[in-house]
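Readers of this paper often ask what the protein records in our data store actually look like. Such a record has a labelled line for the sequence and another for the backbone structure tokens. Nothing more is needed to write down the fold, since each code stands for a local backbone conformation. The record that follows is passed on verbatim for readers who wish to inspect the format.
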Amino acid sequence: MPDIRTQCPQTDTSVAKAPEKKLDPSKPPSVQVPPMNLRLGDVLADEITEWRVIGHPYTTAGGKVVNIRVESVKQPGVTQMRAYDAHERVAAQRG
């Protein structure tokens, strides 16, 4: 029986690699976390400004709503209470 490997032309069996993405070291990567996993110092962004978490998250309504105290990054002293559904994920930058 003839050897099939000698009859077939050689093909390149190496796998093509995807180009590496360059990360911007000046800006930490954004993560999607449940609101109960937010930490003090995390930064949230909305259409108005960026907010820094200054209070530990706590739940109300039988654990369905998560409340978080935040402070404006641009205007220190301006605080808000933010409410999120406990099951949704929030984009945050770890800080």
In short: The first strand starts at residue 30 and ends at 33. The chain has a mean pLDDT of 83. The domain at 27-93 is CATH 2.30.30.30 (SH3 type barrels.). The CA atoms of residues 44 and 50 lie 6 Å apart.
